[in-house]
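chain below, 331 aa
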Amino acid sequence: MSGDDHNHPVHGTAAGDAYVALPPTAVDAAPSGPVRLLVAWPGFDPPRTASALAAAMPMTGVPVWRVYLDLPGRASGQPSAGLGSGAILETATIEAYCAAVEGAAERLPDILADVRQRLGIPDGPVALAGFSAGGAAALLAAARGAVPVTSLALVAPVVAPARAARAVEKRSGRDRSWTEQAAALADRLDLGAAAAALAGREIATLLIGGAKDRVVPAREITSLRDVLRRHETGPVESATFRMGHALAAEPGTEARPPITEAVRVDGVLTDWFRDRLALPEAGAEPGAEARPAQDGHGAWSSATSADPPTGEVPAVGSDSTAAISGAGHPH
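prediction:
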C-alpha cells in the first residue's frame, strides 16, 4: 500500500464485494487497544451502497480504518425498492434480502483478509456497524463468531423481516406472496433469536432507532435491547431519534452530502466508538472521559448501575436530540 493511501479514501473489491475504506485521520485521538478496523454495511433503503454509507456516516473522529462494504448481490449504483414499500411482500425481494444478510456474515473473514493485506492492517478484533439490513448483517456476523468483535453499533436494524413485512401488509392492504422456503429464510434472520449466541461475549452494543420509522419501529429496538440484556451479551445502550428509516435521499446509491438525520446519527456513532476505541486527545487528564455530545448530534446519559425502565425509549428534546440509555447487565 502506498503512503498516499494513509490520507485518502481507498476504493477496492474484497471477496467480490466493493468497499470504501476511510483512513484514520483524526488528529486528536489514537487507538486505545488492538482494534484497528471498523466495518460497516449499508441497507436496502438509502444509503444502499458502501460509498453512500461512507458519505452519510463517515465517523471521521474515530481513529481507526472505517471500511464500508456493499451487501452481497447489491450492485453498486443499482437502485431498488426499499423495505418499507410493497416489494418486501414479494418472494424475490425477501430472498434477495436474506441472501444479502447471510452472505455478508459468511464472507466477512475472507473480506477482512483481503482488506488487511491491501491496507496493511494487522490481525486483531474488529468493530462492526450497520444500517437497516446492514445492521442485521453486523449482528449476525458477531453472533456467528467467525471473527472476534469488541463493539457493535446497529442503526435501525431489521430485527425481524417477517414483522417488517406484516407492517407493510397492514398499511397497504396487500398480503405477502412468500413461498414456504422464503418464509423459513426470513425466520432464520430474527435477530432476537440470534442474540442468544452472543451470551457472555462481552460485546459492547449500541442500538439506534427512529421514532418515525415505519420499517423498524422504536419498539423493535427496545425489544432487541432487552433481549440482549437478558442474555448478558455485554453492555447495551440504545437511542431513539425523531427520524424515519432512510439516512440518505433517494436513490441513495452514490456519495452525496449527508442529510440532517445522518449527521445526527454520525455524531452519536463517532462519540460512542471513540469512547471504546480511542485514547483521549493529547493533554487530556488521565482517566478523563470523552466529552458528551452537546452540539446538536445527541445527548448522552449514562446509567451503568441500573437498567432504565423497560419499554420504548422516548425521543426527547428537539428533533436534533437523541436520548442515549446506557446500562450494563441487569442486576
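The longest helix spans residues 91-119. The helical segments are 50-56, 91-119, 133-144, 161-172, 180-188, 191-194, 218-230, 260-277.
thats it, cya
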